[in-house]
Structures are given as C-alpha cells and as structure tokens.
C-alpha cells in the first residue's frame, strides 16, 4: 500500500511520519486494542458513536473518584469543585464552537433533546397556523419528528427541500421554496446517511435576509469539521458528546442569546428558577433556565474533556488525513463486485454508504462482524433518504482519525467474502 499524503510540519513530509502520528493517536484509544472473534477490531461505526480516548475516560473517572457532588447547590468543597469542573466544560465548549458567550451554551442529553428544546421553547411560542418549516430530505429523524409533532399541534406546514442524485441539497429549489410563510429552516451540517457537507453559511445568509430562523443539526460535523457558529451565522446549532469522542447522554444546544432570552423553559424543576411560590415563579436566565434538575455532571465534564482533546490535535493534519481515508476507501470499495455507493457529493466527510446487489445490508453487517469489522446497517434513522433512493437500507462505513488504510483493506477483504458467499458478480 502506498498513499500520497501532502502534509508538512517541522520539515517532515513522509508517509512514515503520517503512520507514526496516527499510531500515536491510536494509543490514546484503549478499545482499539481489543479483538472480536479472535481478530483485531476494525471500528468503522464512528457515525453512530465515536470511541473515547483515555484522557476522557480518566477525566470522568477522576470526577467520580475525587469530586462527585451536585452542582450549583452546595457551599462545601466537593460541590464547589464539581461546579467549577462543570462550568469549565461549558467554557471549553463555548470556545470549541466559538460562541460569543457561555450564556449561549445549553447542556442537553444530545442532539435530539436539543432540537426538541428549540421546538418546544421557541417554535411553539412564535409559530402560528399557516407558517412553514423547511426541512431537508437528508435529515436524521431527530430533525424531522419534532417538527412533525409541531405540525400536528399547531397546524404548521412542513415543506421538504429535495436532494440531488449525488446527495446534495437542491439549492435552486430551496430558494424557490422560500416565501413569507417560511419561519424556520431545519437542516443538518453533515448528513449521517450520505456524508454530505452542506453549505450552511450560504443557507443562513439567505435566511437572515428574510428573517428566517435556522436550526442546524451538527451531530456529524462536530468531530470532523471546525465549527464556528458565528461564522456559520446560524440561530441554533445542536450536537452530541458521543459523536465527538465523549460520553453518551450529553449534548449541546447553541442559541443566539437574544433568542434564548425570549424563549420559555422547556422543563420545570430545580436550578432553572430564581424563586418559587404558589403565587409566582421567576425563572433563571439562560442557559440555566433550560437545565432543570440534576444534570449529567460526569458526562458533561467528559464532553468538555473530549472537546479539549480534539482541540489539542493538529486539525489541518486530521482533516487532510480523513480526506485521504475517504479517497482511499472510495477507490477500494468501488472494486467490490455489485457494490454501489449511495451519496457521491463532492464535499463529504469520511463516510461511505453503499448497497451490494442482491445482498441485504443486515447480512453484510453480520458477515463483516464475523471478520471483526464493525459497520452500521439499516436506514440510519434517515428513512426519507432511503425512500429518495428507492432502497430499504444501506451499509455505512464511517471513519475517524484513528482509522488506518490497513483497516480499509480489511473492510474490502470482508466485503469480498460477502460477495463470494452470495455469488455476486
């Protein structure tokens, strides 16, 4: 195997240096050392959940070992330490997406919870009968179902932005769909089913000119792209910790402060109030008015550690390397008999969805698992995408910066076992 890799740092520009740096990264991820079915694990399901480095694992363990206590409530040392760690994570994540203030950073349980918060706290308050929400045809269910629920309760209309055969947004039709009734545009930054990177800055610029609110699902972008919400110009941006090498059960909603200030709380309970009586309740300010109850303290601290870990990497190197992985994998899987890639946008993250003639994706996934190759099969919580291409499901291989070209070779060998078994020519 020979891979051309153009990256120069400290005078070094060699394939051996590339391999050395990736091997160094891989040492941070203990799970990559394990075996499945007596074979080395090849983990290519990063679109579902990324693995955690030991730095994140150790941070979570240290919290439980030395600092565990509730936040924002106690005057004793442990509570103050926990609160400091929790709010340090908020500051870290503010910097991670370049928000203008920590008051714009709301901790949630994940992308799904974040988008539901926007639907309940903003859309229910400000949308009325006859208003429209534009939702792209490539959305995860998390950016469809809440708007569907709103359409039923408030009689607003969902209008679909179509996608092209290559898996890109049809921007001409998008512009044609914009009229005075459109109040929200909900679109993902990166498609979890296709890998397409959408032109968010262009979309938000158009929407701002018309006074339309933009809600961006950034779940698949947060680990692969440098996210700058001020440059993107979106009104809301949502993502999940477990998609960016952090723990599950954590998420973040960025919202412009002037919007958060006029929104009502999503849930009621402790810590989201300033005072309570049976006659009057005064809510806390953002972000706290949206964070009712005891939060996932250890997980949020772990999410902050994950953001710190990613920020400590050479992002130009990582982005270039992941693009080389994508190019290599695209080339190699294209040689597999009967294989067709679904989603061939020019601008993609390191993710490939595909079908093989006459073989159900679940069978592909099962056989690949026997070879210790972990991929995702199914509709990927993006059934409208499958309907768009007239297929029930795909197999998805999603790569991260700790994956290697040798692991792509292992994927291709396993796929050829599939085609041999099913006699695909």
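^ structure tokens above, recovered residues below v
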């Amino acid at each position: 195997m020979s891979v051309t890799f153009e990256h120069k740092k400290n005078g070094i520009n060699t394939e051996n240096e590339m391999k050395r740096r990736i091997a160094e990264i891989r040492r941070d991820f203990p799970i990559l050392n394990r075996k499945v079915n007596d074979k080395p694990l090849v983990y290519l399901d990063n679109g579902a959940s990324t693995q955690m480095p030991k730095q994140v694992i150790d941070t979570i363990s240290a919290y439980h070992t030395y600092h565990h206590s509730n936040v924002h409530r106690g005057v004793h040392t442990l509570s103050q330490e926990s609160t400091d760690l929790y709010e340090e994570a908020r500051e870290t994540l503010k910097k991670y997406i370049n928000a203008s203030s920590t008051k714009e950073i709301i901790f949630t349980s994940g992308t799904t919870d974040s988008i539901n918060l926007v639907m309940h706290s903003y859309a229910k308050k400000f949308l009325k009968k006859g208003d429209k929400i534009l939702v792209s045809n490539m959305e995860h269910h998390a950016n469809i179902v809440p708007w569907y629920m709103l359409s039923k309760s408030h009689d607003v209309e969902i209008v679909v932005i179509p996608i092209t055969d290559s898996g890109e947004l049809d921007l001409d039709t998008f512009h044609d769909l914009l009229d005075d009734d459109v109040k929200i545009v909900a679109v993902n930054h990166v498609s979890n089913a296709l890998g397409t990177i959408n032109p968010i800055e262009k979309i938000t610029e158009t929407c701002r000119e018309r006074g339309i609110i933009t809600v961006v699902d950034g779940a698949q972008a947060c680990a692969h792209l440098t996210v700058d919400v001020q440059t993107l110009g979106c009104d809301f941006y949502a993502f999940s910790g477990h998609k960016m090498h952090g723990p599950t059960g954590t998420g973040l909603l960025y919202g412009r402060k002037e919007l958060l200030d006029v929104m009502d709380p999503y849930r009621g309970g402790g810590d989201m109030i300033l005072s309570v009586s049976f006659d009057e309740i005064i809510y806390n300010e953002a972000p706290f008015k949206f964070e009712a109850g005891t939060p996932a303290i250890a997980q949020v601290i772990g999410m902050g550690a994950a953001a710190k870990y990613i920020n400590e990497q050479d992002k130009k190197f990582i982005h270039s390397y992941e693009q080389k992985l994508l190019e290599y994998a695209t080339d190699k899987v294209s040689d597999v008999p009967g294989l067709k890639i679904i989603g061939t946008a020019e601008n993609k993250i390191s993710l490939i969805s595909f079908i093989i003639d006459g073989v159900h994706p679940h069978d592909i996934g099962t056989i690949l698992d026997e070879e210790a190759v972990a991929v995702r099969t199914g509709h990927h919580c993006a059934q409208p995408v499958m309907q768009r291409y007239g297929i029930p499901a795909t197999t998805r291989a999603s790569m991260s910066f700790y994956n290697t070209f040798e692991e792509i070779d292992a994927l291709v060998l396993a796929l050829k076992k599939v085609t041999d078994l099913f006699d695909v020519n």
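Residues 15-52+314-421 form a domain with the Aspartate Aminotransferase, domain 1 fold (CATH 3.90.1150.10).
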